[in-house]
Specification:
This protein is mostly helical and about 200 residues long. Helix content is about 75%, strand content about 0%. The chain contains 9 helices and no strands.
């Protein structure tokens, strides 16, 4: 393809504008180099990708967040380190790098189970995000036990009608659909509707 002067000037304009777009996206993020800035960049990066469909800007913001997270060194095998692994895994997941995200989620989950106990509520959010990675890879059978355990944890801690049950129940319904267990899928969805009705 021959690049005309007009097309060349348009390309130059695009590349010159890109830093300005990123700068505008980060204008209201703190410049503290800590969790707060990393979380702000992560949320803006996800929004740029999922809402604005701007992969270039979104990935730049996510990589900035990753750079900040990578510099943090919490105590080994502490809940803080588990949170660090979780945050980094979320960034890799948002970047579409599930192969990097999965071991991070597993590290986070193992630390939380060892430090806080296997039935602690903090483990639920990690299981939920790990399940998404597994389901995306077609590993539905592998995702199911963790989600069922999460349901049991939430029921015990918050009761059978907690809205927090909706996310794992919905994933379980999808898994049952894929595995051709329609009766179970319907039961999960009926329960979700019941929970929504009681919390409306």
């Amino acid at each position: 393809m021959i690049i005309t002067p007009f097309f060349r000037s348009a390309l130059v304009g695009l590349f010159l504008a890109m830093p300005s777009i990123v700068l505008a996206q980060t204008a209201d993020c703190p410049t503290t180099g800590d969790n707060q800035e990393a979380e702000c960049l992560y949320k803006k990066g996800v929004a740029a990708v999922e809402v604005d469909h701007n992969l270039t800007v979104g990935h730049q913001l996510l990589l900035q967040a990753l750079n900040i997270r990578d510099k943090q060194t919490p105590a080994q095998n502490s809940p803080e380190q588990a949170e660090q692994f979780l945050a980094v895994a979320d960034i890799y997941s948002a970047l579409g790098r599930n192969g990097k995200a999965e071991p991070m989620y597993r590290h986070s989950l193992n630390i939380l189970r060892n430090t806080l106990g296997p039935d602690h509520l903090e483990t639920v959010k990690v299981v939920d995000r790990l399940a998404l990675i597994l389901m995306d890879a077609g590993r539905f059978v592998e995702a199911e036990p963790g989600l069922k355990h999460s349901v049991a944890i939430i029921e015990k801690a918050k009761g059978p009608d907690s809205p927090d049950l909706i996310s794992p129940l919905d994933k379980l319904a999808w898994i049952c659909d894929v595995l051709h267990r329609g009766t179970e899928a319907s039961a999960y969805r009926k329960r979700i509707e019941g929970i929504k009705a009681k919390n409306s």
